[in-house]
Amino acid sequence: MGMLDIIATKRDGGELTATEIEFLIRGYVANEIPDYQVAAFLMAVYIRGLSEAETVALTMAMAKSGDMLDLAEIPGVKVDKHSTGGVGDKTTLVVAPLVAAAGVPVAKISGRGLGHSGGTVDKLESIPGFQAELSATDFIANVRKIDLAISGQTGNLAPADKLIYAVRDATATVASIPLIASSIMSKKIAAGADAVILDVKCGRGAFMPDLPAARVLAQTMINIGRSVGKKTVTVISNMDQPLGAAVGNALEVKEAILTLQNQGPADLSQLVLALGAEMLVVAGRVDSAAEGRQLLEKLLTTRVAWAKFREFVVAQGGDPAAVDNPKLLPQAQFVLPVRSCSDGFIVGLAADKVGRAAAALGAGRQKKGDIVDPAVGIVLKSKLGDKIQTGRLLAEVHANDLLKAEGAVEELISAYEVGPGPAPPKPLIFQVLP
Ligand code: URA
Fold first, then answer.
1. Which of 139, 231, 240, 326 meets the CB 3.0–4.6 Å disulfide criterion with 134?
2. Can you list the residues of the chain whose pLDDT is less than 70?
């Protein structure tokens, strides 16, 4: 067996064995297979696809390429939640403490933002003092103590995915369903939870631009989960426009706090309740999503979920004063208005452009290793379906650099599409699978 044969088999549309896939992954992590051969393999996969068996084999080989967290010492069904990546997606900040407040242990490994989509770790780190990089021991201890820990990828979880993702990014092979599914599921399997709820984003700001593609991605991840005995449920949700109003790290934390205090934007609250209810069902805490939703609504209105979030912030070293009074979170120096130059209805609000505008302000990274500015970002004041007039406030740009702020204003104006009448509304949640 050699790498040349493996590439040729995939190039010609053949099926690889699990042994061949393991050989490739092991060899690449050990630095025995060069990037250019992996790049050729990935392009062959991009064009030819992978069978179900190959996708599972790739996922498992990547999951086993580093440490595998063992959460067995935490009693109960441990649940994880993951989003395929969106703009303004702060659901984890709300749903994780909400579900933990219902007594279900939430053990969540999160990522940082890259490109136009944000990452939970960057958001949490905008809280002064917050420690998002926990050791495996502290991670487990916190879940045991307060039913909740969220950590960045410390240690060596699925290092093969990290290496392969970098090659995909540089070879235009990111947008391949089996590669996305195996990338996400390898990390979820290595992170050790018993069940996972996947928020599969669909629309302009997502990897999957339309519903049929999102369904295939969802089903592929469900099949992987099933093959390893991990309960996997997918919620396909709309990402044509950003979720909620805030895009940017501290701004999103503020919006998450409002949502935990039951005063958040309707779309964010609705998605949080849908995801949270599914988490309670897979954990066996409730018998149906409707029952779960009722319980979660009560935990929001009684502020039990908010108290859990505060407890979680303190447990990971964050300053509780900054979440009690979000004015103490990092604030940008300048706030520039973005105003409409026409009358009509908002028929398009390109999430990808909003995400790019926020990233260019410094809320995200242009490349790995860039330092994010926690204070900057965008607050949307008008969203899809709104009736607007010339001069109406569409958004606010929060910036620490006036030149960058002006660039963001331009990008935001181009993100809004105005029509003479309202476009037919699309649902926020398309489907829950299985
Ligand atoms: N998120 C991941 O972790 N991997 C992908 O390939 C895409 C989104």
1. 139
2. 114-116, 154, 367-368
